[in-house]
Hints:
By secondary structure, the chain is of the alpha+beta class. Helix content is 42%, strand content 14%. α1 (2-20) crosses α10 and α9 (138-147) packs across α11 (175-188).
Amino acid sequence: MKRERLLLAVPPLLGWYRISKRDLPWRKDRTPYSVLVSELMLQQTRVEAVKERYVRFLTRFPTAEALAAATEEEVLKEWEGLGYYSRARNLHRAAKIIVREGFPQTWVGVRALPGVGDYTAGAISSLALGVYAPAVDGNVLRILTRLLADPAKIDENRTKRDFSALLTEVCPPEAGEFTEALMELGALVCVPNGPPACGACPWSALCLAHLEGREEDFPVRGEKRPRRVEEHDVYIMTCGGKYALVRREEGLLKGLYGFPFLTAPPAGRELAARRAKHIFTHVEWHMTGHLVEVEGEDPAYLWATAEEIEGKYPLPSAFSAFRIWIKGA
Ligand code: SF4
């Protein structure tokens, strides 16, 4: 029953996609490397935010060879502001593997690249290699559970497995287009926030949730675990026009420069304080930032000017609320 309905849904979906797809930079002049870059950039990041950055990244690092030859610092700097910096490090490592061993030709090989999970491996295999492998994320689960009025909980692994198997069964020969069409429908029509645009949907005559007027009942989710909240005092120490930075050696934002988190204030004169919040996937940082003028440059830190912070040291967006204190930055 599910399979039959999904089989019926494939031709109108492809027909709709061919005339409605967005003109996105990563859909032009595709190479396996460019697909890898776009898929990693798009992980947990909005298409609008990625568009310009993707073009800039590929201009700077047009091939896996160019990326592999760069230093980690150069790659992180180019990634600055996109967040989830482990993706940049993984991409860098993946480029080195590709230069050494060639681009993998199977789903298993793609999946083994750093930073590539099941979804990304499915997308890359379909788009870059023409080998269909299901790429099932929250968007795809939303549209499929609506199409089928399926009450399966979308955050359970079993649901993902079942829909992956189903998609593999009904995949047409145009594997790449099919993968993208599913994503595009979830992005443009059967949207995650707000009511779905059923009037413009190629599935409006087939979609059980729509036919039953129950679009809002799907997808069904299980209990959500709350994010862990961490309180931090962040010190923006300044001395003679320079600011103290630390390279974070572990945990969130590993490998990036930031302002130190201290449990006791440094000796000096506090000039200002402000609260800020940054939300990661599973953790929230609730920060109190302190701008402190200190007497001398403590050698435990890297002391950088505003220009150096702007141009040389990638400062993650978690600290952007405190940039107003960096004069000239
Ligand atoms: S008909 Fe409406 S609910 Fe069903 S898939 Fe299309 S947009 Fe989503």
